[in-house]
């Protein structure tokens, strides 16, 4: 009886292994433009050469394009770019998303600066929301060749997020921001959907709300240094339905930095999630213009 059980288990393992191999070869075949059957009957050295060709083509593609470093904003982390990363990766870009501590503007700039410096070759920085203030400071790194602002702050020297916010009445989402006793700010989870990402479905909004990363209140008072956008080419995306940064404030910042291109999306503050394709297109346009 035990022998039969072991034999059945071994058979199941073999079936799973074959299915996994077939799945891999289907994917490889699609990339190479050949059938799965052709790969099954091809000698091992031919299959190995085909796999090497895929890797070679990807390396050549990455060599002709800048690295993309994605910088998240407040109340989030690198996973906020989940609708952008796969598309850029599949287009042959070397994509990385920094994970900032959100403890102070200088500390976040330092983390992103070191991250950008570590990238091999020309690099494009893309910042969402508070991440725009971060790339404004980190963009001075020599290998950074351009900046893309996604519904983001773009401060000038001596400005803070607080001083920019004071230019207009607080946006609707500001009422949902709550401090804790440790000096960090949170968005009320029950109001996250309506405040931050009203154009996402409830499930996506729930995950964002319950995995949010708080930002230190001091980040809104930290003053920005000399802005990289005065020396580096920039692109800007305005969210027309933003409830965290007034669209008028985004327009003001976009006009001031004189980007090579500005686009306006009918989107919430979370345009990187709700309008991922448009954000990818903007990043690609910036990439093409710079290389």
What is this structure's SSE topology?
Blueprint: H1 2-32, H2 36-41, H3 44-63, E1 67-71, H4 85-90, E2 95-98, H5 105-117, E3 123-128, H6 130-138, E4 144-150, H7 161-165, E5 177-179, E6 184-187, H8 192-196, H9 202-210, E7 215-216, E8 234-239, H10 247-257, E9 261-265, H11 271-274, H12 276-290
Parallel strand pairs: 1-2, 1-3, 3-4, 4-8, 8-9
Antiparallel strand pairs: 5-6, 6-7
Helix pairs in contact: 5-6
What name does CATH use for the topology of the largest domain?
Rossmann fold
- Total helices: the number is 12
Give the uncertain stretches in residue-range form. Answer: 1-22, 30-36, 54-58
N- to C-terminal separation?
67 Å
In total, the number of strands is: 9
Q: What is the approximate shape?
A: globular
Structural class: alpha/beta
Task: Characterize the main sheet.
Answer: 6 strands, parallel
Strand order of the largest sheet: 2-1-3-4-8-9
Mean pLDDT: 87
Number of domains: 2
- CATH architecture type of the largest domain: 3-Layer(aba) Sandwich
């Amino acid at each position: 009886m035990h022998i039969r059980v072991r034999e059945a288990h071994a058979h199941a393992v073999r079936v799973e292994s074959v299915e996994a191999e077939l799945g891999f070869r289907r994917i490889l075949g699609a990339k190479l433009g050949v059938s799965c059957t052709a790969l099954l009957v091809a000698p091992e050295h031919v299959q190995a050469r085909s796999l090497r060709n895929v890797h070679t083509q990807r390396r050549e593609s990455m060599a002709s394009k800048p690295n993309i470093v994605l910088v998240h904003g407040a109340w989030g982390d690198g996973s906020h770019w989940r609708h952008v990363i796969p598309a850029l990766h599949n287009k042959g870009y070397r994509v990385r998303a920094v994970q900032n501590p959100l403890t102070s503007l200088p500390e976040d700039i330092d983390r992103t600066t070191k991250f950008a410096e570590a990238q091999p070759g020309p690099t494009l920085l893309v910042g969402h929301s508070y991440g725009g203030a971060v790339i404004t400071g980190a963009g001075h790194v020599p290998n950074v060749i351009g900046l893309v602002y996604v519904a983001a702050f773009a401060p000038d020297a001596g400005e803070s997020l607080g001083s920019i916010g004071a230019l207009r009445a607080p946006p609707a989402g500001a009422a949902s921001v709550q401090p804790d006793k440790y000096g960090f700010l949170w968005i009320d989870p029950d109001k996250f959907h309506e405040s931050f990402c009203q154009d996402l479905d409830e499930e996506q909004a729930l995950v964002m709300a319950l995995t949010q990363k708080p930002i230190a209140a001091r980040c809104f008072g930290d003053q920005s240094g000399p802005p990289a956008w005065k020396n580096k080419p920039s692109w800007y995306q305005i969210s027309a339905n933003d409830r965290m940064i007034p669209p008028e404030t985004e327009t003001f910042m976009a006009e001031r930095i004189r980007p090579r291109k500005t686009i306006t999306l009918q989107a919430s503050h979370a345009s990187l999630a709700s309008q991922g394709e448009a954000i990818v297109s903007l990043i690609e346009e910036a990439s093409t213009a710079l290389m």
